[in-house]
Design a protein that fits this description.
By secondary structure, the chain is an alpha/beta fold. The chain folds into 3 domains: about 250 residues, 3-Layer(aba) Sandwich (Rossmann fold), CATH 3.40.50; about 110 residues, no CATH class; about 80 residues, no CATH class. It has 14 helices and 13 strands. The strands form 3 sheets. Strands 2-3-4-1-5-6-7 form a 7-stranded mixed β-sheet. It has a 4-stranded antiparallel β-sheet with strand order 8-9-12-13, with no helix packed on it. Strands 10-11 form a two-stranded antiparallel ribbon. A hairpin with a 2-residue loop joins β10 and β11. The chain is globular and about 65 Å long. The model has no long low-confidence stretch (mean pLDDT about 85). The structure holds guanosine-5'-diphosphate. Guanosine-5'-diphosphate (GDP) binds next to α2.
């Protein structure tokens, strides 16, 4: 594809910055680690636990440089990018440890710099700078928009919204759409009302009962600092895919804003942030999708394929090299594994692998190594064998968040309950087809299974660690070993 003039200018700007990054890297090795995942996947909790574990020295037996004592210390330093908000690490940690509440989730991009002093395996002292970039996974799903016209995007979004269970959630928006004439004169109020209904539909899809994942444009649910701007105020219209919008029409107005969205939102994100990442972890709340049923699982699978496509765009001629990522390792992590008994952890990994299967071989072909792990960045539960009738069953003990309701009980945030999360089915096809599907959990006193997972409060910590207790986790060390272990050899 031939490059336009503005793209050539951007290419030049990008090469200059790549050179600068490269120069910095020679004297001061830096890894830019992207942390992403769809909303509520666990990004904020993951980064807080990771930084805390590295800076205070967590219990990380599988993270070799720390386990063998080669990491002397890790400290926070001012971040390199002045225009990116700082990740509010200290606030999040306080919320987690002192109040034993979960911190506020990611809504925008943010960044944090951690500097690690370590000894190489050959004995030499070195420093590695780790820049952690937290951004909503929804933004990655916008990449395909760059090659789609407004008319194509409209027709695809409408077709998707007519499938179940989306169709039910789109009813109000659809009936409003039926009253619109795309050729009519442009009208700000009509556009606002339509965009509002469209956004409400997207939000309903995202609701935990449906847990749909594939919902571009990503900023409609995760607007960051652009909430309310015209570039975020448009919606699909019923228009012919190869049609031409009449000047001054509603159609032309929507089309213009769609193009603005690509110019001011999508391109800058891929150019300024995504293309500069070295390593990436994608967090996935697979349990929420299991809970919501097979449609949610299929939807998540499509979203993961979309995310993986972003990592192999270097090969594609559809996109300019502006967005080519230099990522060479990608870890997909199923989060909140502490909701399941450890005997099920391998099975969640198998399910995630299956979902990635087709797509990940493609990413490997593009030069990135891909791995999968089931983890809990902060482990809120413990395991025990609990008597139930005549049997002793493997169960999960934790304190449900205040106000949680399951199997007819409302919890007070203090009482510990035993839950039996049930086994994930060995037959993965059953999970995807909806028969023999996962049945959520039961509690010790309940007769019937509940379909939802309970949310647990962050754990009570041992205070004998001199005021700075270690956070318990599951396999966070394995994730770290894959993501940066080789950079600390
Ligand atoms: P984000 O939107 O990706 O930043 O998601 P958060 O990190 O804010 O996590 C969303 C919610 O998931 C939290 O409020 C917790 O309820 C839950 N969560 C995240 N990580 C864990 C974990 O490791 N263990 C448990 N039990 N819950 C978690």
């Amino acid at each position: 594809m031939a490059l336009g003039f503005s793209e050539i200018v951007e290419e030049a700007r990008l090469s200059a910055r790549a050179l600068l990054d490269y120069g910095d890297n020679l004297f001061n090795p830096t890894v830019r680690l992207g942390v992403t995942g769809l909303s509520r996947a666990g990004k904020t909790v993951f980064i807080t636990a990771l930084v805390h574990g590295l800076s205070r020295g967590g219990r990380f037996p599988i993270f070799e440089p720390l386990a063998t004592g080669r990491i002397a210390r890790a400290r926070l330093e001012p971040q390199p990018d002045d225009a990116v908000p700082r990740f509010a690490y200290e606030d999040h940690l306080r919320t987690l440890i002192e109040q034993r509440l979960w911190p506020n989730s990611t809504t925008d991009i943010s960044e944090l710099r951690l500097v690690i002093d370590y000894q190489r395996q050959n004995g030499a002292d070195r420093t590695l700078t780790l820049d952690i970039i937290d951004y909503p996974g929804e933004w990655l799903l916008d990449l395909p928009l760059l090659t789609k016209s407004y008319e194509q995007w409209s027709s695809e979004s409408l077709a998707l919204s007519r499938l179940d269970p989306r169709a039910r959630l789109a009813a109000e928006w659809h009936s409003h759409l039926a009253t619109l004439d795309a050729q009519a004169h442009e009208n700000e109020q009509v556009t606002l009302a339509t965009a509002k209904l469209f956004t409400e539909y997207l939000r309903a899809c995202r609701d935990e009962r449906f847990a749909m994942s594939l919902l571009p444009p990503g900023r409609f649910l995760m607007p960051g600092n652009l909430a309310g701007s015209p570039a975020l105020t448009f919606a699909p219209l019923e228009v012919p895919v190869d049609g031409l919008a009449p000047d001054g029409s509603l159609w032309a107005m929507m089309r213009r804003r769609y193009e603005a969205y690509k110019d001011v939102v999508v391109r800058p994100f891929f150019r300024d942030h995504f293309s500069r990442l070295d390593r990436q972890i994608v967090l996935v709340d697979a349990l929420a999708a299991f809970n919501a049923g097979p449609e949610a699982l299929h939807d998540l699978q499509a979203a993961l394929a979309g995310i993986l496509d972003c990592f192999r765009i270097g090969r594609s001629t559809m996109f300019s090299s502006l967005f080519r990522p230099r990522i060479d390792r990608i870890l997909f992590a199923a989060t909140k594994a502490d909701h399941l008994h450890h005997s099920s952890h391998d099975r969640i990994e198998a399910i995630l692998k299956r979902m990635l299967n087709r797509a990940s071989t493609r990413a490997e072909a593009a030069g990135a190594a891909v791995d999968v792990v089931a983890l809990a960045a902060v482990r809120a539960t413990r395991e025990a064998l609990v008597q139930r009738g005549r049997d002793k069953l493997p169960s999960i003990l934790g304190r449900p968040v205040k106000g949680e309701i399951a199997t007819g009980e409302t919890f007070d945030g203090e009482t510990e309950v035993a839950t039996f999360p049930g086994d994930l089915p060995a037959d993965l096809d059953a999970l995807f087809q909806g028969d023999g599907a996962f049945r959520g959990l039961t509690t010790a006193t309940a007769e019937k299974a509940d379909f939802r997972f309970l949310r647990f409060r962050p754990p009570l910590l041992d205070s004998d660690d001199a005021g700075d207790p270690a956070l318990p986790h599951i396999r966070l060390d394995r994730a770290l070993q894959f993501l940066i272990g080789d950079k600390l050899q």
